[in-house]
Write a structure and sequence with these properties.
- This protein is α/β, with parallel strands linked by helices and 397 residues long.
- It has two domains: 315 residues, Metallo-beta-lactamase, Chain A (4-Layer Sandwich); 42 residues, no CATH class.
- The protein is 23% helix and 23% strand.
- It has a nine-stranded mixed beta sheet.
- It starts with 51 loop residues before the first helix and ends in a 6-residue tail after the last strand.
- The structure holds zinc ion (2 copies).
- The site of one zinc ion has 6 residues, from helix 3.
- One zinc ion binds next to helix 3.
Length: 397
């Protein structure tokens, strides 16, 4: 299926993507962002995928008797970061690329594991380095047709390196306006947010819903509650999705109750590093999913997660099970149960701030917003006290 020539330009051109700097002519949003380069990029939509056939047959073999799925979402284990690859009818979309130190993994997953040499659409949800980092490697690995980002400029060396590399390949950044759509083979992608730029970079994440037949996936980048609320107010009916790529690595600053009630996900994907000092995912968020009966897949526990849809149902294959790193298992949709989350409660620990000499519960705002360079992890409360740290007055750890 992925060996098809597909030289038919299935991905529509600029008419489905209204640039935010085009004078705010789009029906849903104001003019935003920096100056757009003069030259409009011509889209060829031509695929350059060669070796995917072999990979697909291996996957079908692993999936056993399940029907040949035409859509796959590979949610990659890039530690504390996000990276996903969507394959549909021979078309390829990459959404984020993890951190810079994931570059080699990204390169080999694209070219080796998936046997790809082309990416039709690359999406950088927002310019933070745990999302932009590995995309330079993806640009080096695969001839990329177009790049969607929420901003043209962000003052961070990782983002700027990605931007320079894109410019070298004559790729202009495009900003998908909320309310517009894009096709990826038979899958349809709707851009849901941002409607306006927030001060917080996470809240400018490209939020998009992919539907394929009767199945749907919602990608949120690092959107936090303000952007969730914005999407909820503007288009609540569009949020419903079978699979939610959970915002901001499961942080308590995302996945608000109202938002989750609108999405009603059957499965949730969390890109999170083992024993990360951010306290991701937050216990409160996991508890919300548990209460909703949503099956949670976490890259720290399950490794890379591959979801396959035939348009009617979704099957899930994970790289490993918790406590059994070598196992590979297959779940059909009917077998998904909420028990898995209950067996693996969040690890208890504390996060200290080396600057303020205070320590917090991992889900406390003070810990979530703390800069990486000031973080120190304590396994117990006693350990923090002994190190001379004072308990935070808000979360009272
Ligand atoms: Zn992130
Ligand atoms: Zn972020």
């Amino acid at each position: 299926m992925y060996g098809g020539t597909a030289a038919d330009g299935i991905i529509p051109g600029e008419k489905h993507l209204i640039n935010r700097n085009d004078g705010g002519a789009g029906k849903t949003g104001p003019a935003l962002g920096r100056a757009r380069p003069e030259t409009e990029r011509k889209m060829s939509g031509v695929l350059r995928i060669c070796r995917g056939m072999l990979v697909l047959s291996v996957l079908v073999w692993i999936l056993g008797s399940s029907a040949l799925a035409s859509l796959e979402v590979h949610f990659l284990d890039v530690g504390q970061g996000d990276a996903a690859i969507v394959l549909c009818d021979g078309k390829v979309m990459m959404i984020d690329g993890g951190k810079p130190d994931n570059s080699q993994f990204i390169y080999s997953y694209l070219t080796g594991t998936l046997g790809l040499s082309g990416i039709d659409v690359m999406v950088l949800s927002h310019p933070h380095s745990d999302h932009a980092g590995g995309l330079s490697a993806a640009l080096a690995a695969c001839r990329t047709e177009r790049i969607l980002t929420p901003v043209y400029y962000y003052n961070d060396p990782v983002f700027l390196r990605f931007r320079d590399l894109a410019a070298e390949q004559n790729l202009m950044f495009e900003m998908p306006l909320a309310g517009t759509k894009l096709s990826l083979g038979a899958a349809e992608i709707s851009f849901l947010a941002p409607y306006k730029l927030f001060g917080d970079t996470n809240d400018n994440s490209i939020m998009m819903r992919l539907s394929y037949g009767n199945t749907s996936f919602l990608f949120t980048g690092d959107a936090e509650i303000p952007e969730e609320m914005e999407a909820l107010e503007r288009a609540p009916e569009l949020l419903r999705a079978d699979v939610l790529k959970v915002g901001h690595h499961g942080s308590s600053s995302s996945s608000g109750e109202d938002f989750l009630n609108a999405v009603k996900p059957r499965a949730a994907l969390i890109g999170v590093g083992i024993e990360n000092t951010y306290g991701h995912p937050a216990r409160s968020v996991l508890e919300r999913f548990r209460a909703m009966g949503t099956q949670v897949f976490r890259t720290d526990l399950h490794g890379t997660v591959v979801l396959a849809s035939d348009g009617k149902s979704i099957s899930v294959r994970t790289e490993r099970m918790p406590n059994d790193p070598d196992s590979v298992y297959t779940l059909s949709w009917a077998e998904l149960t909420p028990e898995l989350t209950q067996e693996h409660p969040a690890v208890e620990y504390y996060v200290g701030n080396m600057k303020s000499q205070r320590f917090h519960l991992p889900e406390c705002e003070g810990a979530v917003k703390m800069s990486e360079k000031n973080r120190i992890r304590f396994e117990t409360r006693e350990e923090a006290i002994q190190a001379g740290y004072q308990p935070c007055g808000t979360c009272k750890p």
